[in-house]
Amino acid sequence: MSRYQRPVSPTEWLYLAGQRTMPPFAIQLVVEGEGDLDPAALTRAVRVASAACPGARLARDGRTWVDTGEAPPVTAAGSVALWPALASSALERTCEVVVAEGAVMFRVSHAVMDGRGVLTWAADVFRALRGEPPLGAPAILTDFGLADRLGAPGRRPRMSAGWRSPLTAPPHAAGPATAGLGPAGQSSARQGWARRSVDGNHPGLVAKLATAVAGFTGAGRSRFLVPVDLRRHDPALRSTANLSLPVFLTAGPDETWQSLHKQILRALVERREVTGGAAERAAYRLPLGLLARSLRMAGDRHLCTAILSHLGRIDPAEFSADGFRASTVYSLPTHAPLAPLSIVATAPPGRTELTVAHHGTPERAEALLDAVEAALSPHRHWAGNDTRRAVPRATLTGLFARQVAAAPGAVALTGPFGEVSYAELDARADAVAHALRERDVGRGDVVGLLADRTVEAVAAILGVLKAGAAYLPLDPQHPDGRIGHVLRDAGAPLCLLGRRHAGRVGVEHLILEDLPTGGAPPADDAATPDDLAYVIYTSGSTGRPKGVQVEHRSLVNYVTWAREEYRVDTGTRFALFTSLAFDLTGTALLLPLLAGGSVALVPDEPTHVSLREMLERSGANALKLTPAHLDLIGRLGLTPAGFRVLVVGGEQLRPAVAAAALRAFGPHCRIVNEYGPTEATIGCVVHEFDPDRDTGAAVPIGRPVANTSVFLLNADGRFVAPGETGELHLAGEQLARGYRGRPDLDGERFVRLADGTRVYRTGDLARVVDGELEYLGRTDDQLKIRGYRIEPAEIAAALESYPGIARAVVTGRAARRGTDPVLCAYVVGAVASEQDVRDHLARCLPRYLVPAVIVTVDELPRTTNGKIDVGALPDPFAQRAVTPPSGGPAPGTVEERVSQIFARILRVDRTLIGPDTDFHALGGDSLSMIEMLAAVAAELPDPSTRDTLAGSVIRNPTPAAVTAVIRGGAPAPGGAR
Fold this sequence. Notes:
Radius of gyration: 35 Å
Shape: elongated
CATH topology of the domain at 5-137 and 160-376: Chloramphenicol Acetyltransferase
CATH architecture of the domain at 5-137 and 160-376: 2-Layer Sandwich
Strand order of the largest sheet: 16-15-24-23-25-26-27-28-29
Helix content: 25-40%
Structural class: alpha/beta
Number of strands: 40
């Protein structure tokens, strides 16, 4: 087999002369990531990849490049901080590889490869590292050889050397470097290079760069050299050689990027990169020494204002291997003798890396990059993000201790049990902390809590925090299997239980009612602001729930802000009636206790009776609830009085619901729409409802809270303009630490902007209108129903675990226009009965994740690209109409009135209701069940039986069963109200 060799092209001859003028005249590709590359394994991979890409093993023999057969050396730099000095040093060979902690650099003489050639070789190195065969690059064609084959369509304009530097400094060779390039968003222009990471992938990038540089220069005209990859004319050609030839752009200081983009497109259409070349061919005839002297004599006369290179979109996965996950890829440009400035761009997903080789001052290089970044990201800064505010560096237990010290006799908790003072609650919490410490539970531990809304449960939360641990609230309504899985997943060594839940967990446990209520020595605050306060599990898109870890400092930020925003003081009493495992409960529980207020505990599950009691007789004057709860209160006709504030969160709030609530609660009650995923600590964006202004489809979610920022980015990672829709990203003090034991999910959802800002990708779509954020839906199929965040994939996975179900899909459907959506499942396979499937789900999923309707289909329809076509699924309610018995129930009878109640509350046609119709099968849920119970209670002749109604009906919610309960006595006169 003959040895690989190819001619030195005229372009490469010029580069060899440039290398003598400004060594090392190298392209230096940098891959940064997480993890480390083993030098020995990298050496083997370089050997394999270089055999497939022989352009990496070249040495010059006169005017011919010859394969030496020797792979480029791999050396260790130890630290990326040493790389600028390395980048300025001479190459030992035409190619070499340098590995450092978390990074690798491919250094290549520009005389043998262009930017695309280096990427081709480096990608093959990583293929070899992954054990994949390299694609190779064996072609020997040169740039002028390919241009001649393509045929020159015309002549290139004469290249004159008279363009000024945008940095107003004479060119000089880059001096030795001693400091690092720095992380993204920081640069080291003093070294002759600068780097800046900018958010987003930008169409027309080269034109935008040219416009920014031209405007920064302030000259009458600017000229830009743009290398064009000739491989675009032959996509099958695989070569590492210099296959890039230039096109030139001219721009005035007021030129728009759109007009420059048209120049580029026109040049590409006319194939101007393959025209001419007379100057290069003439230079090729000169000896290298003479050509190098000619380049030095050019002095400060430049062929162009700047060289602008764009290496295109880059997938970091191509530059990853076992133990090393690439996060970004960028290229240090050469210092060209006839150009004062070179900018190279690469585009990893959602980011643009810009690197600059310059001959100017560091300050001017920084100023230029500032101008470029401002041009690319004009909408990054939003006035709504001016939220910086001083917050004490404290813990939840520290804040609680201040309230105990300030007013030990003040009421902390109230309810059917009476009243509990701050001092009594503190003593109970000390006793819990003491019991935990006796069992070596402390900082870094997670303690389960399975309890109802009781004094013991509140004391347990505070006691866990005093011990320095984090609490893991578990919903008693969830099945035992899920509770056990969550405890195991969180690594909880112990669980605190209410007595009625004894025997439900498989870990060590303590019964709360058996713990002392005092007598323990005061517990010192064992936690720090950076320790975990709680872990709350939410529905998981991968088929299993995920634990969100929230630290003390995040909760302290929320509580400090909310205390002022919601005007919480010693006279504030929040009613607590939602599950402790629901993160919005933190507003009703933690906020008042850390501000000197009180909490009215509602221990029983909400019914029409307990809601009336809570709103009219508990003494509460503040509520945290979902829009569905708010709507229900209005429909039940309750008349609460004395409320100061309603904090509404969990799902989209409709203006009609808010307006009705304002009428019910009175004009002095504030209604605040609070948006916030669990990953951003309870609530992080708020808007106070204004009935005169908020007349759109939904109440705005508003503006970010203290020390919180909101960024809206499009699918390419660019900041969107006001009024445009983007995915909502959250940043600031309230971001969670991450997911419990799920670094894969952390990397997917907790990401960093180009400047290093850590953000949470919510998956929610929003826009800014008149300075306020409006929620517009989701980027994925996640659902929000009755305030619960639901991942359909988790339910589908549970369905597919049922014997006989091959495939399943879950979506939200409304029974008819204007009604709330309910969970509907479609399954392929054989099932015994819908109820059997529902029973199976109830054993492994929380009640709110069990679909209201389960429909068997022959196949799941798909779109042309293979995705399930949710819109083509059949109407789940269409086949549920029933034929009433012959004659039907007579108008006005109990049976007919109950059927009408079902139809009205479920918002379905009366024909869908038969004697055995299950309330849940037509979309009924816990809240609509409360409304139904209230309506049925009006039919009971004996008011004393209304308190036992719920237990009787919930077990069998059909019209026949309800009718039987009512007929325990004579129907109430006047029928249903």
